[in-house]
């Protein structure tokens, strides 16, 4: 299967039913990304700042780049001028740094708050209580150059569909609750990003409206080792 035909098939399950498809292109070459681009894809996700910056410089300017991986505060400055969405905000400290660099670039940067829903304790993100605490924090409320557009979560890496389904259900309930309590009048708070290649069908059933899909589009990744652990 080609990248174009993989995308075509996926679009029927996602964009055709109102779910945004983010093509996760981490570790993939510029020519592979251009194959997806030629097939009409414009939204791409990356999880490594240096790779993201290099690709954004080399590739067409109408690509919308999403940062989907853990972001270190000292790297925010490199992506703040152009990033379309930071989907992996996991602390107030990071949000303040994004706000600072967004202001410098004269921008308001769209962000998703990452919620910890998996069983593994290696994943990043807020738990429910931390999320509520953040949304009530005066320091958070004062940030004017970040716009919270929704939530993101990664389910457990398991074959047990019941576990995955329960985790996505929990995130959807949390999303609805947060929307009603904190963003009732804010139309922009509407993104629920959950689902990747292995679990996007379950995620969509449970109410996801943004899926982040890599290997189903581009094929398996060869694992890359980075020097700085980011
Ligand atoms: C790599 C990655 C994906 C895509 O994973 P696939 O299994 O290749 O679809 C989605 N979300 C995040 C946060 C990722 O790091």
UniProtKB/TrEMBL annotation:
Modified residues (N6-(pyridoxal phosphate)lysine): 26
Classification via InterPro entries: Ala_racemase_N (IPR001608), PLP-binding_barrel (IPR029066), PyrdxlP_homeostasis (IPR011078)
Presence of keyword Endoplasmic reticulum: no
Domain Alanine racemase N-terminal per the UniProt entry, residue ranges: 3-220
Annotated keywords: Pyridoxal phosphate
HAMAP family with a match to the protein in the record: PLP_homeostasis
Family membership: Belongs to the pyridoxal phosphate-binding protein YggS/PROSC family.
Family annotation (PANTHER family): PROLINE SYNTHETASE CO-TRANSCRIBED BACTERIAL HOMOLOG PROTEIN, PYRIDOXAL PHOSPHATE HOMEOSTASIS PROTEIN
Cited function: Pyridoxal 5'-phosphate (PLP)-binding protein, which is involved in PLP homeostasis.
Protein's UniProt name: Pyridoxal phosphate homeostasis protein
């Amino acid at each position: 299967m080609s990248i174009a035909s993989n995308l075509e098939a996926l679009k029927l399950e996602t964009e055709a039913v109102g779910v945004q498809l983010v093509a996760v292109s981490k570790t993939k070459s510029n020519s592979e990304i251009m194959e997806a681009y030629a097939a009409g894809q414009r939204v791409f996700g990356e999880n490594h700042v240096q790779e993201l910056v290099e690709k954004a410089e080399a590739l067409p300017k109408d690509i919308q780049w999403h940062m989907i991986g853990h972001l270190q505060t000292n790297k925010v400055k490199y992506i703040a001028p152009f990033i379309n969405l930071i989907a992996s905000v996991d602390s107030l400290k990071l949000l303040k740094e994004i706000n600072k660099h967004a202001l410098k670039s004269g921008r308001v940067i769209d962000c998703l708050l990452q919620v910890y829903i998996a069983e593994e304790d290696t994943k990043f993100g807020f738990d429910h209580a931390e999320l509520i605490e953040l949304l009530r924090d005066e320091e958070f409320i004062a940030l004017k150059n970040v716009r919270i557009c929704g939530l993101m979560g990664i389910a457990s890496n398991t074959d047990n569909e019941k576990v995955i389904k329960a985790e996505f259900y929990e995130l959807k309930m949390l999303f609805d609750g947060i929307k009603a309590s904190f963003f009732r009048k804010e139309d922009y708070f509407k993104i629920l990003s959950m689902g990747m290649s292995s679990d996007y069908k379950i995620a969509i059933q449970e109410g996801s409206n943004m899926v982040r899909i890599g290997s189903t589009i581009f094929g398996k990744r060869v694992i890359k080792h980075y020097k700085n652990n980011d």
